[in-house]
């Protein structure tokens, strides 16, 4: 294991090298070191510094920005780097349990270096590794040390060529054969080929394959995960019956080898079934410890959330990097000015400020949110590990699922749009590959797609909120959730009666003002969505049709506004804690207000429209 | 010259090969052949078919979608292809004059094949070639045949490392030396290096270099264009004193070799000055045929417009290609459905329709607009060529400049956002390089930047409108422009009094309704911008500050709304002509209404806000 960086603040946060940014830095109203310490904490800064210092000194990680690397070479390099990261062993299992935030911090550091590396590492250790660990049982523990030594290299094979979002339509089968005590993994046709599987293209030796489990008598028990060896670890040649290959060039993340695989009646031992959710006896009888389908569903939701929370954190990294590049450029690039002789930095233009600064605020707010949601997830996973089967634990799973499902869209889109704005705001220089904005944009793009298309995921969140409103309207149930993100909705009738009563612009420069407006907005959208859904159903639409017809104009903005409110709320509370150093209060307060107002302003038409409507919920829906 | 494609409609518009799209095609309410004939006309369809057929048969143009081509190889291939296009000689000079729309059509066909090729061809023939032709005089005509035979290969060198948008700050000098009758071209330092020059990186032998012209006595006469040989056409080695090179990898358009150049006291003959705007006598006296600075400025604006109109047309091509890819995918990709057994095409989902169909409508509306604006530009250039120095000709130049300056931003952003939406709407498959959406996005991106940053350009359009309002308010002058795009503003006081009075959704499904709302919106924004500008000035801001402070919240939306209105207006008129075949009226009317309403809906907050304000212009500004 690499020893942590020693020394005091000067070693941890050395001064920037002198340069054209000095003038702007001298004008700052706060100490950047103080802000870094407040945002990260000394222990985390030291951890990140340890990682960066190791990579800086290692020639394998030497950068050649804008280089024209071939696909083959890039994939090879990325694999070697991933292996090296395991060798560095930056994070012990004990550390992981003591400071869980170091897990996303490590992924973020790798993402700062190269998204392809972060994702490759994440897929092997956290996605493949966690799937084996948490979906398997004691008999699968032998895999764990092999995963950390990279003796085997893994991937997670769920998506198929013709089905991604709709997992129920996955068609790979696993038929149990009691005669040999084996499962037969089979792809019925090429549309059922596993597809897009990261690490599968060139390097994975093992895959967690999701397949429909059949036992004799042709009973199907739905999707289950199996650990299947797909390549010989020595030669990397495919195992008999496995047709596996690389999907070729992608728009980005080209260091990652996404692959496809078809299985032709591949026989694996009965023990290959990762049997936490259900198992098959040697004789061929299906057994499951979960009697309650809803509970079983809650457990699987937890797994989905962890992927989405990781993506949230990767999107934030991309946004941060782009902001640093674009803001530094804007502070040094001079163009036009009050006179022909005097040119001013483009950062001085209100246009450039309006284009970039809201995304800077978004980076801070989303960074804080991603950490806090990760800690919520850790709480949930500890509950799972300790066998907590309380109602609170189940509710926590649902709440985190709803938050994670909307936070991946919000963060990946904010990063996507922010990076694009940075690219354009840097003019031609932003278009040069060596300036990295293109790579960031291309590498960020799959965050909008994998682990669920953004627009599809938002439906999970709007459904969650609608699911809470119905019992309230019908039985007067309370809005209550373990993390309290929906508790304010309890007062929705009085919130909807509130009017926006701020008289001056200066009074708006506090995120509390935007927060109040956001609460109104979410109540308004929830009521409108509920009414629209009921109206659709009354006019004869099926549930499927009714939801589809509501999603564009109602469900989608509802889910986004709810998540934005949650991000604003958490950041607002964070920057108004008593422990905030007095010298940072002003700048953090401004960041919080800027993010809140900017996000809110995109709903301005709804705020105007809402003012015109004043009918209560029960009037229409009853 | 390649002979045009012969044969009747069947050869010109053959049936599509049978496939999974048949079911959707059979459901169409109109004949796609009829629509193609109406949109393009038979002569144009034949011209495009000739080009595509030639490229399809030529192995040099064989495609390998998603291939991992090295930078060097791609640039070499693109140069060879560009040369081959000149050999094909698709468009004679006579044809160009007879059917000027064939010029953008040729560029669009090349852009459909590959943006790098279109831009390389455009830069050499139209940008470099036109600059020599229209900025030079008889003594420069010897270059023209060499340009078309590619005996010499050209580039247009205006931008420098530190200055792009602010051309007044360009610092390359051209000092006249009467002793040798030469100009000395010189780059004072590396910040004055010519930068981003397309074709300069590897292949150009000659450059039109913009430099500050100095005559003895150190008098500076501002920027002038010089034709400078930068490489030996045989060896491609740089000429003495010229340091020239390639800028390396970009986010896209990597077939195009963008370059930089520094000139170290490079001596060129006096005749190298492209002397249409001004000349230097052998003795060293500066002479210019243009006495009126405003007139001279009008002439140069014409040149700028032509670049912007070309970019508009390239952006439209990118959007069209992306739409075809995403819509075809959406009609065949099935995911989820009303029951677990039955999956439906993703195009059936209201969400997918809302994501894609407005961009389809935008492609039609902007395609029509780009052609009509090109024809306006041709009218203007014919006036220039015939020596028309009337007030109308000058006004036409200004109006086209205002339209072109906002149309490049509108089209390049619409394409940028549309392609991104297509990429995401195709899920993972959209992220695979071979499916081309990434290349389209990356190749479209510089359209937002070159020939003027989009946000900077919009200021040209808002300034044009404000410049017309001031004399109206002060002296009661009329709003009149040669193309009549501003004439409606004459009725602004009564337009501002109008209320939106449509009672049903069905009544909105006519672009006339959106048009009326757009007229109100532009009047409203113009009034608000004018008032805000005057208010800024009254409170002590300089003109520079006042304009900067108005641009984000006022000038920018004003310019965009005005251009959108113009696009909607022209498309509305186009699809409501008596010559529209009756069977196409419904579908074209729907496209027009969809584009108009969708564009307008993005200003919804302004429409609500405007309703609340009812004070007249003179009340506040006087």
UniProtKB/TrEMBL annotation, chains A, B:
GO terms for cellular component: peroxisomal matrix. The active site is at 451 (proton acceptor). Keywords: FAD, Fatty acid metabolism, Flavoprotein, Lipid metabolism, Oxidoreductase, Peroxisome. Its cofactor is FAD. It catalyses: a 2,3-saturated acyl-CoA + O2 = a (2E)-enoyl-CoA + H2O2; tetracosanoyl-CoA + O2 = (2E)-tetracosenoyl-CoA + H2O2; (2S)-pristanoyl-CoA + O2 = (2E)-pristenoyl-CoA + H2O2; hexadecanedioyl-CoA + O2 = (2E)-hexadecenedioyl-CoA + H2O2. One of its GO terms (biological process) is lipid homeostasis. Residues 155-264 form the Acyl-CoA oxidase/dehydrogenase middle domain. The keyword NAD does not apply. Residues 302-466 form the Acyl-CoA oxidase C-alpha1 domain. It is found in: Peroxisome. Residues 511-611 form the Acyl-CoA oxidase C-terminal domain. One of its GO terms (molecular function) is fatty acid binding. Oxidizes the CoA-esters of 2-methyl-branched fatty acids. Belongs to the acyl-CoA oxidase family. This is Acyl-coenzyme A oxidase. The gene is ACOX3.
């Amino acid at each position: 294991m690499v020893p942590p960086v020693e020394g005091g603040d000067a070693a941890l946060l050395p001064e920037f090298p002198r340069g054209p940014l000095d003038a702007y830095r001298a004008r700052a109203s706060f100490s950047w070191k103080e802000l870094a310490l407040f945002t990260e904490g000394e222990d985390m800064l030291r951890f990140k510094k340890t990682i960066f210092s190791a990579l800086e000194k290692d020639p394998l990680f030497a950068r050649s920005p804008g280089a024209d690397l071939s696909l083959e070479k890039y994939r090879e390099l990325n694999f070697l780097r991933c292996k090296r990261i395991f060798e560095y062993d930056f994070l012990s299992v004990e550390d992981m349990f003591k400071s869980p935030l170091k897990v996303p911090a490590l992924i973020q550091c790798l993402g700062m270096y190269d998204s392809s590396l972060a994702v490759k590492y994440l897929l092997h250790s956290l996605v493949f590794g966690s799937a084996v660990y948490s979906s398997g049982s004691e008999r699968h523990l032998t895999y764990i040390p092999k995963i950390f030594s990279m003796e085997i290299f893994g991937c997670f094979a769920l998506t198929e060529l013709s089905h991604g979002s709709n997992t129920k339509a996955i068609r790979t089968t696993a038929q149990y054969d009691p005669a040999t005590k084996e499962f037969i993994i089979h792809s019925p046709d090429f549309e059922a080929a596993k597809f897009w599987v990261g690490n599968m293209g060139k390097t994975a030796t093992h895959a967690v394959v999701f397949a429909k489990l059949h036992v004799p008598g042709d009973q199907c028990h739905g999707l289950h995960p199996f650990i299947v060896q797909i390549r010989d670890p020595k030669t990397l040649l495919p195992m008999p019956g496995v047709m596996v290959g690389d999907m070729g060039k992608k728009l980005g993340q080209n260091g990652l080898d996404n692959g496809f695989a078809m299985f032709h009646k591949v026989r694996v031992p009965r023990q290959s079934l990762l049997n936490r959710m259900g198992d098959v006896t040697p004789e061929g009888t299906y057994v499951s410890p979960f009697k309650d389908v809803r509970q079983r569903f809650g457990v699987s939701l937890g797994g989905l959330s962890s992927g989405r929370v990781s993506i949230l954190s990767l999107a934030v990294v991309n946004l941060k990097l782009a902001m640093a590049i674009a803001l530094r450029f804007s502070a040094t690039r001079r163009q036009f000015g009050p006179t022909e002789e005097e040119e001013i930095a483009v950062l001085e233009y209100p246009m450039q400020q309006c284009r970039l600064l809201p995304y800077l605020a978004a980076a801070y707010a989303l960074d804080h949110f991603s950490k806090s949601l990760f800690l919520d997830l850790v709480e949930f996973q500890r509950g799972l590990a300790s066998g907590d089967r309380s109602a609170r634990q189940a509710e926590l799973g649902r709440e985190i699922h709803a938050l994670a499902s909307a936070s991946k869209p919000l963060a990946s889109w904010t990063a996507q749009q922010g990076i694009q704005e940075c690219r354009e705001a840097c003019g031609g220089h932003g278009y040069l590959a060596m300036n990295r904005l293109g790579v960031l944009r291309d590498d960020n793009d799959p965050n909008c797609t994998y682990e669920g298309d953004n627009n599809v995921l938002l439906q999970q969140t709007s459904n969650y909120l609608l699911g809470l409103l119905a019992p309230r309207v019908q039985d007067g149930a309370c809005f209550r959730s373990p993390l309290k993100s929906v508790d304010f909705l309890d007062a929705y009738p009085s919130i909807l009666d509130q009017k926006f009563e701020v008289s001056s612009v200066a009074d708006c420069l506090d995120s509390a003002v935007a927060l109040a407006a956001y609460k109104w907005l979410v109540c308004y959208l929830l009521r409108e969505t509920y009414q629209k859904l009921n109206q659709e159903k009354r006019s004869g639409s099926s549930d499927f049709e009714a939801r589809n017809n509501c999603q564009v104009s109602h469900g989608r903005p509802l889910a986004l506004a709810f998540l934005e409110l949650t991000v604003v709320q958490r950041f607002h509370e964070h920057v108004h804690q008593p422990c905030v150093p007095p010298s940072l209060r002003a700048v953090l307060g401004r960041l919080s207000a800027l993010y809140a107002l900017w996000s809110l302003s995109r709903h301005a038409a709804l705020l105007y429209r809402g003012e015109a409507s004043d009918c209560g919920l029960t009037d229409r829906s009853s």
